[in-house]
Amino acid sequence: MIRIKGLRVRYESERGVVDAVRGIDLAVAAGQFYTLLGPSGCGKTTTLRCLAGLETATEGEIAIGGEIVYSSGNRISVPPYRRDIGMVFQSYAIWPHMNVFENVAFPLREMRGRFSRAQIRDKVEKALHLVQLDGLETRPAPFLSGGQQQRLALARALVREPKVLLLDEPLSNLDAKLREDTRIELRELVKRLGITTVYVTHDQLEALTMSDLVAVMEGGRIVQEASPTEIYRMPKEKFVANFIGLTNFLDAKVIGLANGEGLGEVETSSGRLRCHLPEDTAIGDRVVVVVRPEDIGLSTESPSQVNNVLEGTVAEASFLGDAIEFQVAVSDNRIRLKLHPNTSVRKGDAVRFLLPAHSCRALAS
Fold this sequence. Notes:
The chain has about 375 residues and is of the alpha+beta class. The protein has helices at about 45-50, 100-110, 115-130, 145-160, 175-195, 205-210, 230-235, 240-245, and strands at about 1-15, 15-30, 35, 60-65, 65-70, 75, 85-90, 165-170, 195-200, 215-220, 220-225, 250-255, 265-270, 270-275, 285-290, 295-300, 310-320, 325-330, 335-340, 350-355, 360-365. The strands form 4 sheets. It has a 6-stranded mixed beta sheet, sandwiched between helices. The mean pLDDT is about 90.
């Protein structure tokens, strides 16, 4: 449905030439929920705006539904209103001088002569029903709550029944509870409608819970593209592991290559560990071992009896409600782990804990 090849965006600034997007390639299948995830300034919104036609790329090619809408080589640049897209902005961009009905009807009225008044009313009512704003047609837009304004912007994007829906951090202005509820509603809505969706966010939880496919961006490039599970469980770069969720990092040296289970051995300042190694790893290579806090558990075994058991002292304990997060001092490292809130471990306790080998992943240093 969507294909981007070799997309580059370069512009002049006071500090010289800035490469906002550096040769992105991606493909989004029909009906897929695809998320561009990354920190501010990574190029995700610029990529979305190029897809929408709101910004002109320096190089590359963009196709939507089999039609090329931008090509630097062929000098093609289809304007936004001809790209069959709907877009929701971070600020919602609703018109304060219009009521709810007129805000949603505006895109249809701009398509002069294409729809009758009866058709416009029918389409607007259907769009408002989809986002649960029935009965609010005559309410002035500024009198809506934040969540209602977000749904109004979504209804306006959907009323034209576009092939593609583009969402630029649409939930960032909502409070935490409303954001959680709206996240679920939005995911269910676009899946029910079967609309191909490209979503931009810096929120890892949004990306993991809503997406079919996640592309993590850094410095204008995609560093990893995969399912939410793979992004979280099998990061390929340290940046991805660090950006997605909470992670422990242990500097290490490879001392044993992968065995039949795909596990090698590394030496850290806290002890020896078995873990997954990167491809083409050699003895003596420097790596970084990553392991999630929730994968670590307390152990009653001695280090000599079980692989990947370390000993340390609890330096910090933070109650999180559904868990307690501990920081355990082991040599010169602080290792975080999450345990059930009913655990009897307290600050200052000496503990043994297990880092399961299959949950430890070494990445190139």
